[in-house]
């Protein structure tokens, strides 16, 4: 199942000022892979544009250059494969551009007849095909350049895929896990979060003395649901406490995260909840660690500004 929706890139055969987007995408993509764009895009015979890119190959004794003729075909909107008729006179075009290779850059797949035709040309010059799947594979690697291109050309499908990945933001210099206090497993991973909980350990005698109008928390723990939680819960119940828990996956929903923090703040301000030092520190730690999945990434300008703010003594 493809992840990136190439239909997000405007059609190449409709003149609306955006018809060259696929070629611009090809240019940015190939530059990301290390090709140098020499010329292009030139309007081709069928409305498709061609680019010339240079690949530098470093050998032991010298660097050689391969000139690639890049043929872009954006057929994602029709969903059809790139066929024989779409790529007429490949050899002539390669020769006319004084190229040593032919690079097909396609937003769909290549048809079998064209595949056979291209294979037959491999003895004459180098051939490389980037079809939908191969382009996608290069863009979904975890690096900043690929991320920036994917975001620009596939804003909808790429962002929804990123959300599904449940990746932490770059809020802290390094990702910090929230560990189960029993087994040490990170409770914030995509797999673990559905079965993770935060548990508030309450002083039941204190509540009784205050007609159950004030809660005093003596501890907070984070645990996997099931045996880890049961062991910790039993430990606190035997000490005369009661426990209340919430699903961590619920608190990781951005709206609920804010709502939940507001509720915690309101209860503290209204005097309904009292925290001892340890649970109060753990509450803050929990809010910080969960925020890695709730807040968006910092931009590079914000990172720089943050560095400046950190130099102001009152800031921390
Ligand atoms: Zn556990």
Structure description:
The longest helix has 18 residues, at 277-294. The chain starts with 20 loop residues before the first helix and ends in a 6-residue tail after the last helix. The chain has 13 helices and nine strands. Strand 2 (49-58) and strand 3 (63-73) form a beta hairpin. It folds into two domains: 6-165, Trna Endonuclease, Chain: A, domain 1, CATH 3.40.1350.10; 190-294, no CATH class. The radius of gyration is 29 Å and the shape is elongated. With 316 residues, it is of the alpha/beta class.
Main β-sheet, spatial strand arrangement: 1-2-3-4-5
CATH topology of the largest domain: Trna Endonuclease, Chain: A, domain 1
Quaternary structure classification? single chain
Number of domains: 2
* CATH top level label of the largest domain: Alpha Beta
Mean pLDDT: 90
Judged by helices, strands and strand pairing, the structural class is alpha/beta
- Ions, cofactors and other bound molecules: zinc ion
Q: Roughly what fraction of the amino acids lie in strands?
A: 15-25%
Q: Tell me the number of strands.
A: 9
Describe the main β-sheet briefly: 5 strands, mixed
Number of helices: 13
- Give the SSE order as H and E letters: HEEEHEHEHHHHEHEHEHHEHH
- Considering DSSP H and I runs of 4 or more, what fraction of the residues is helical? 40-55%
């Amino acid at each position: 199942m493809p992840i990136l929706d190439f239909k997000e890139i405007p059609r190449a055969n409709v003149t609306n000022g955006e018809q060259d987007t696929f070629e611009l995408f090809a240019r940015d993509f190939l530059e990301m892979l290390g090709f140098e764009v020499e010329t292009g895009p030139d309007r081709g015979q069928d409305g498709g544009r061609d680019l010339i890119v240079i690949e530098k190959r470093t050998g032991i004794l010298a660097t050689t250059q391969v000139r690639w003729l890049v043929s872009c075909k954006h057929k994602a909107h029709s969903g059809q494969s790139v066929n024989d008729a779409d790529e007429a006179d490949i050899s002539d075009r390669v020769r006319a551009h004084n190229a040593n290779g032919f690079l097909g850059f396609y937003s769909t797949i290549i048809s079998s007849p064209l595949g056979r035709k291209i294979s037959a040309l491999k003895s004459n010059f180098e051939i490389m095909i980037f079809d939908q799947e191969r382009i996608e594979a290069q863009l979904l690697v975890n690096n900043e350049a690929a991320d920036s291109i994917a975001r620009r050309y596939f804003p909808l499908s790429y962002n929804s895929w990123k959300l599904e990945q449940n990746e932490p933001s770059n809020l802290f210099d390094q990702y910090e896990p929230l560990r189960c206090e029993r087994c040490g497993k990170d409770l914030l991973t995509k797999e673990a979060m559905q079965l993770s909980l935060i548990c508030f350990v309450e002083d039941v005698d204190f509540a009784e003395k205050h007609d159950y109008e004030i809660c005093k928390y003596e501890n907070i723990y984070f645990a996997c649901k099931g045996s880890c939680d049961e062991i910790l819960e039993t430990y606190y119940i035997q000490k005369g406490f009661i426990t209340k828990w919430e699903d961590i996956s619920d608190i990781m929903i951005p709206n609920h995260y804010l709502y939940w923090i507001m509720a915690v703040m309101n209860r503290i301000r209204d005097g309904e909840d009292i925290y001892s030092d340890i649970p109060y520190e753990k509450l803050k730690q929990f809010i910080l660690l969960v925020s890695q999945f709730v807040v968006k990434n910092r931009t590079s300008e914000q990172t720089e500004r943050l560095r400046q703010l950190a130099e102001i003594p009152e800031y921390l």
